[in-house]
Amino acid sequence: MKWLSSICVLAATWAVGLVQAAEDTEMKSVPLRTHSLESPYLDSDMASRWWDFGGDTMIRADKYVRLAADQPSQSGWIFSRIPLTANNFEIEMEFSIAGKGNLHGDGFAMWITKERAQPGDVFGHTDRFEGLGVFFDTYKNNRPGVVFPYVMAMMGDGKTTYDRANDGKANELGGCSARGLRSSSVPSKAKLTYLKDESLSLDLQYKTEGTWTKCFDLKATDSMPLKLPNQAYLGFSAHTGELSDNFDIVKVETKNLYQPRASIPRTKDGKKLASSFERSSKKSGGGWLWFFFKIILFAGVCGGGYVGYNAYRTRQRYNRF
């Protein structure tokens, strides 16, 4: 009986160890203070150590960074002072779009671009940019069948102009309609996740607090490489025309994403090598489902052996009498 109990204990320990190893391979994160922003936004000398701002941007230390006010012909920006060098990152921002009028425009944008603090006519930023622009467009120019506000991403090559006449239709990598994003009853948030040269996704919160809606989830291909400049700055800008709104940034949290190096076996040339467990899973074709099935099966064998052993001892006891 002792040997059976020992095997069961070893099996349980082995299973727990594998589960912990699997958890260690999950993506970890480290906050990047240099690219995060929160109240009071400014230092004691009324400046920011990590950010520059200009144009019509106003800062109310207890509430927001207002990129553009609810007035015609406003344009403002705020940009990080140092480049965002993380290969993989997540940027979560809280923002607000609201105004007095029933008609409103134009919109604001998040930038991860080679250009830094260069005002222009693309939501307050220069055109022909190199890098990523995520546009929160609140005014419909000419895009039939699309509900506004509309959120979309564009990867600029430094030469291509933004398709302003058609609300960026020719430039869109991915996007979604977000009815209710303006004057939302819950804190409006956007979460951008980028894995170097692999994927780009955007999630929005504006319907229910704590509930995220997927806007787009892109995977890199030969025809659609998701490559950012080696030196890119994080920024935000907004623009109003004849129609206007208040475009406010409330909070920005940027995180560097990484996998623990100990959990990523590599070859001599630095390439990722599948673990023995991953290789055996692929060969068996079962993955995690098959792995847990085997654990349950082994536990069943242990349990069956224990029950059988007790039944055998009971039978022997009765046979003596």
TrEMBL record:
GO cellular component: COPII-coated ER to Golgi transport vesicle; endoplasmic reticulum membrane; endoplasmic reticulum-Golgi intermediate compartment; Golgi membrane
PROSITE patterns named in the record: L_LECTIN_LIKE
Residues of the L-type lectin-like domain: 29-257
Subcellular location: Membrane
Membrane topology annotation: Single-pass type I membrane protein
Superkingdom assignment: Eukaryota
A Pfam entry, by short name: Lectin_leg-like
Record flagged with keyword Metal-binding: no
Signal peptide: 1-21
Biological process according to GO: endoplasmic reticulum to Golgi vesicle-mediated transport
Stretches that traverse the bilayer: 288-312
The keyword NADP appears for this protein: no
Coiled coil stretches, renumbered: none
GO MF term set: D-mannose binding
Keywords: Lectin, Membrane, Signal, Transmembrane, Transmembrane helix
Identification of the protein by name: L-type lectin-like domain-containing protein
Organism in which the protein naturally occurs: Cyphellophora attinorum
